[in-house]
Amino acid sequence: MDTMRIIANRKERGAALLIAMMALLLLAAIGVGFMFMADTENSVNNNYRDSQKAYFAARAGLENVRTLLAAPGYAANPPKGLLYDQANNLTMPGAGATGVLYVLNPTGSETVNPSTGAYGDDQFCQEQFASSGGTFTTPTAGTRCSFPSSGAFNTTSPNTSAIPNTGTASALPFKWVRITNKQNFMGLLAATGTSQSFTVDGSANYAYRVCFDGTKEIAIPPTQSCQTQGQSPAPPVDLAEPVWLVTSLAVTPGIGANPGSRRIVQMELANAPPLNVPGTISTEAPITFNGASVTVNAYDNCSCTCTTSGNGNNATTTCTSRSGMTCDGSHRAVYTANTVTAGQANAVSGFGTDLGGNASQQNVNPFPYNIDQLINQYKSAATPASFNSQCSGTADFTANPPSYLSCPDQSGATFGTYPAHDSNYVPNQPVTGAVPQVTYIAGSVHLTANPIGDGVLIIDGDVRIDGGMNFYGLILVRGKVTFSGGGSSGTNIYGAILSGEDITNGNASSDVVGGNVKLQYDLCALKDSASHGPPRLLATHELQY
Question: 136: domain range?
Answer without folding.
Answer: 38-273+532-545
